[in-house]
Amino acid sequence: MAGLGEGAPLFAQVAERLSAEIADGGLAEGERVPSSNELAAYYRINPATAAKGIGVLTDEGLLEKRRGIGMFVAAGARRRLLEQRRRQFTERYVEPMVTEAARLGVDTEELVELIREARHTREGATA
Amino acid sequence: MTAAITVTGLTRRYRGKLTLDHVSVGIEEGAVTGLLGRNGAGKTTLMRIIAGQEFASAGSVQVFGASPAENDRILRRMAFVREDQAYPDFKVGDALRAASWFYPNWSGELADSLMTDFALPRNRAVKKLSRGMRSALGIVIGLAARAEVTMLDEPYAGLDAVATQLFYDRLLADYAEHPRTILLSTHQVDEAAGLLERVVVMDQGRVVLDAAADDLRGAATRVSGPALAVAEFTAERQVWDRRRMGSQESAVVVGPLDGTDRRPARNPRLTLEPVSLQELVRYVGTRPAQDTRQRTIA
Q1: ipTM over 0.90
Q2: Lower CB count within 10 Å: N or C terminus of chain A?
């Protein structure tokens, strides 16, 4: 179970990892996705579980099967995944941050300023 | 689900004690099933009866639709690797040759590569092997047999961590190429966890849980934080293990959490941690005697 956790079904975690790779551009559109046996060996999980994870993305139209060759990242998959992540951004990142800020007595003005600073530092670092 | 092994009302009395108490369970064909539970729960007895090496007091076992007891046709389709496997006065090479004659799907190639992996000496008498080497020999035979039903009872006894991992990696690789029905009993649930598709937990001669492994992930959560917040979170939920220290409390909540429960914004002072398969098995496998009926948790 290398790198996978206990909190969610393994097949869902495999699907999540593949989605993240596609969203980050690590797996480009049109590129071949690792087979269920390759995923099984890498994560040390049952091949049937890996196949179920691939199946989730196939059902969502993010992967497509090319007969006899394997599974490939579908056209438009990256854009769709990025849109999905944007929708989850508030719940995953903004809400916990706002809650923690309230506990620490950081007011909205300060919070906005902290975000500006962090963004500034990051842009400085990557420039 | 198609069952390769069907166990119905299986009961075994030994010296006035019930080692198996009306066990009914189906072992899915082509899947890896973990047979889990404490020592003395009845796992080995169940496997021995399935393998035709022990007889039931009542109930029945069917493997591929037939009783395995004294049934050579069925026994050749089954490999049973057990911790205390006895061999006649054999050298390692003799044991492999005998197995190659018995099992119709025997792979000499796989046996050779596993012999190298585990650095087993062919010319040594089996009696003179260390405990770990004897386990390794059982593993070589059990995997190279490529039997349609492969039962492994604590197969890694005496193996170090590296060799244990090697066993799981080789099992996984060969199973991926040659799927078969695997029933694996183990204490070390964490190491096997990724491989298991189904989990059967036994306690005091009974099956107390029979579920898909992935359904159990996220089926219980440890909630910790200020006692008041924990109390509020756990109200009207089933709780397994509650402990308190001063104003802090920790409790294991049974049942999947929904998205709202998980939102950190809702419970900023609570820590939510998934309960591992290993822990989950421990909770369901150690209930008081009157409470060991089959449980539904997923």
Answers
A1: no
A2: C
Map tokens 């390692």 to a residue.
B92
- Residue B284: predicted pLDDT: 81
Q: For residue B214, what are the CA distances in angstroms to A14, B166, B260? A: 12, 24, 21
The full set of domain ranges for chain B reads 3-215, 220-274
| B222, B275 Cβ separation under 8 angstroms | yes
Q: Residue B68 and residue A82: Cα distance in Å, rounded?
A: 55
Q: With an 8 Å Cβ cutoff, are A95 and B268 in contact?
A: no
Q: Within an 8 Å CB–CB cutoff, is residue A9 touching chain B?
A: yes
- Chosen for mutation from A6, A36, A99, A106 (greatest number of chain B CBs closer than 10 Å) is A6
**Tens digit of each residue's pLDDT (9 = 90 or more) over B275-289:** 888 888 888 877 554
Rounded Cα–Cα distance for residues B49 and B63 (Å)? 11
Q: What is the CATH number of domain B3-215?
A: 3.40.50.300
Tell me how crowded residue B160 is: count the other CB atoms within 10 A of its CB: 10
